[in-house]
Amino acid sequence: MNNKEIVAQAIFDVVKEDLSLETVTQLLENPKSVDHGDVAFPAFSLAKVYRKAPQQIAADLAEKIAGTAFEKIEVVGPYLNFFMNKEMVSQAVIGQIAKEKGNYGDSTVGAKGNVPIDMSSPNIAKPISMGHLRSTVIGNSIAFILEKIGYNPIRINHLGDWGTQFGKLIVAYKKWGTEEAVRTAPITELLRLYVQFHEVAETQPELEEEARAWFKKLEEGDAEATELWQWFRTESLKEFDKIYSMLEVTFDSYNGEAFYNDKMDEIVTMLEEKHLLQENQGAEIVDLTAYDLNPALIKKSDGATLYITRDLAAAVYRKRNYDFAKAIYVVGNEQSNHFKQLKAVLNELGFDWSKDMHHIPFGLITQGGKKLSTRKGKIVLLEEVLNEAVELANKQIMEKNPDLPDREEVAKQVGIGSVIFHDLKNDRLNNFDFVLEEVVRFEGETGPYVQYTHARAMSILRKADFVIDETKEYALNDKESWEVVKLLQKFPDVVMQAAEKYEPSVIAKHSIQVAQAFNKYYAHVKILTDDEQKESRLALVYAMATIIKEDLRLLGLHAPNEM
Ligand code: ARG
């Protein structure tokens, strides 16, 4: 039980006749300052029932509420301030963490339901962008969080590996490309060819026609077109995989847009049967005026399918294949309308499960307040950013702890981790500026700071030769430890909140708070002094390290034992 639940129950036992447990719970407040206790109850709402001044009611209640759960109950005007029994709470919390370890906060609300998470999903033959990075790390963290509350996440990389651009690429490659150039630097070369195509097509519009013809061949399974496309895809994926292995993100499926090539006819037929398709200048559309949305373009006038056509097929496929409890799409905010249209068309088709589909949007990563662009030359190469982060981390570790045994591995965990953490620590819809030096700092609200706090705790435990014993009772009653205890106690609620909002930042913020509270504790209390509380203090250090490590795991970061 959390503190609010304990207080609510205690009040309810006294006012049973007049208020429901739910009402009491809703009325409870978090006092602004620790001097006002841990939970507060305003007595105003009982004034009418009891026909007495709220002050009097508060005083009466305080006398009637019994039990050992509270150190004291203070009456301040119409307010009842509850001070929890620190010894009882800390004993329960530390004891539970000692038993459950990283499983503290697990729940079964997900009932093993499948949740396909559409994440990362870069486009073949183009550099993976900062936006795709965000989708990757946010999706990965949401997967861990949902798994913790009992869902079965399925990480899907819906690769952009289909569409008219592949016709253009084939044309450009056949005209100006060489096998060797593509092999040496696939994405750079393919991007160059793509850019060249557009430049030349400005004066030679017939190229567009050629490109359309090649894409048509590809759609129809022509051998040469398929072989080239397959090759572009394989080479691009090799480069993407470098990033994924640095981030330590794995996927359960790489079924991208091409996978749905043979699954779209069925969708078009369904739309026809329900009389949802309309002709518009030769193209086929679904009118979505009723949803206050632009029409969904299903087929172009030349018969080519579109992004949304493939997403329709993908949604139906995922429902059939995974029978999902919910389906999540972690894709930038700029595609909001696309996902609204997608859900609307599925709803028109009578699929009531479309209500279980959620677009999880996020904001932009900017530089100097400006949007990063992949256009000519201005590509920010993710691999470089990650490598630089590792180097910066390495430099700082060299200064702090030059003899660290596996320094290179730790530098990787800290450097890459810092980029992930920075991405996840703010509400996902916020835009944020990326300044590498800030990201990798060991102080402030950064990943390295949280990791460093964990390592410091581990070093204290090592020094003390402390091993947690789950059969022992550890309890603390000082106000310094109380701040840490409360944050640990809150962890299961924090996980639930993060899951409900699909918001990893809730976890990241918790990890920062725990780290800050712990560092304050460490500064004020001599943990290793030999007295009768020493074991309990060490148990608290152990519990804190366990939860910080779990916070970090849910975000996709390691917690090195030394750094
Ligand atoms: N490839 C797309 C892009 O880079 C993102 C795909 C997102 N997923 C989806 N099912 N539409 O913009």
TrEMBL record:
Domain (Arginyl tRNA synthetase N-terminal): residue spans on this chain: 5-84
SMART domains registered for this protein in UniProt: Arg_tRNA_synt_N, DALR_1
Enzyme Commission number, as recorded: 6.1.1.19
Keyword annotations of the record: Aminoacyl-tRNA synthetase, ATP-binding, Cytoplasm, Ligase, Nucleotide-binding, Protein biosynthesis
Domain DALR anticodon binding: 450-563
Primary location class: cytoplasm
Keyword Membrane belongs to the record: no
CDD domains associated with the record: Anticodon_Ia_Arg, ArgRS_core
GO molecular-function terms, A-Z: arginine-tRNA ligase activity; ATP binding
Subcellular location field: Cytoplasm
GO cellular component, one term: cytoplasm
One GO BP annotation of this record: arginyl-tRNA aminoacylation
Motif 'HIGH' region per record, residues: 122-132
Stored InterPro entries: Arg-tRNA-ligase (IPR001278), Arg-tRNA-synth_N (IPR005148), Arg-tRNA-synth_N_sf (IPR036695), ArgRS_core (IPR035684), DALR_anticod-bd (IPR008909), Rossmann-like_a/b/a_fold (IPR014729), tRNAsynth_Ia_anticodon-bd (IPR009080)
Record's catalysed reaction(s): tRNA(Arg) + L-arginine + ATP = L-arginyl-tRNA(Arg) + AMP + diphosphate
Enzyme class of the recorded protein, top EC level: ligase
Assembly and interaction partners: Monomer.
Family of this protein: Belongs to the class-I aminoacyl-tRNA synthetase family.
UniProt protein name: Arginine--tRNA ligase
UniProt source species: Enterococcus moraviensis ATCC BAA-383
